[in-house]
Model the fold of this input.
Amino acid sequence: MEPGKVIITLIPNGPAKVECDEAQIVMTDGTTQTKTGRFSLCRCGESKTKPYCDGTHKTCGFEG
Ligand code: FES
Done:
């Protein structure tokens, strides 16, 4: 992947897959998490590990 480039792929009926060298995620409480490589952000709203996908979209009937 090109340095500095971020690729976000929306998976049908699933998460937003993020591919990057490094991402800073600012949480709702103001803390920051650093993620590298590949990770998935929940789009269904049912993950117990928000903002990350925990696979719950497969059983909650999410469409989108
Ligand atoms: S998109 Fe996977 S748990 Fe929400």
